[in-house]
């Protein structure tokens, strides 16, 4: 009689293990699909990180943030633009335009020519710079008359 109880326990344990195994096998396709998606996203993230490292976008981002917050740069802007190993021509132009737009005092004509030469040597198209120069000139002209707007006569009422 003692053996019968043990047989029933073994059969119950075997049945539980079989149910767990069946459940694992049935969820295998779903798990494989999840693994495939994770691998896919990991590959995309790795490729993006590689592009960030190759273009040194982290350095550009840090420099752009410092330019906008008026902090001192670790490396001169001209050195960054002239570095052939860092960034694309578009990255270099974006960096210079951020400097040009956010600076309170525009660079001297001599400095501007140096920047233009460095940008041209880096393969940059200077038309965005020409556009921004024109835009700043228009903005400066538009801001001029408002300084004299309050010098009119007052009405009595």
Task: Explain the layout of strands and helices.
Elements: H1 2-55, H2 57-68, H3 77-82, H4 89-102, H5 109-121, H6 127-143
Helix pairs in contact: 2-4, 4-6
Task: Throw out a few tags for this protein.
157 residues, mainly alpha, 6 helices, elongated, Sec1-like
Description of the molecule:
The chain has 157 residues and is mainly alpha-helical. It has a domain at 55-141. 74% of the residues lie in helices and 0% in strands. Helix 2 runs parallel beside helix 4 (89-102) and helix 4 runs parallel beside helix 6 (127-143). The model has no long low-confidence stretch (mean pLDDT 83). It holds the Pfam family Sec1. This is Sec1 family domain-containing protein 1. Keywords: Protein transport, Transport. Belongs to the STXBP/unc-18/SEC1 family.
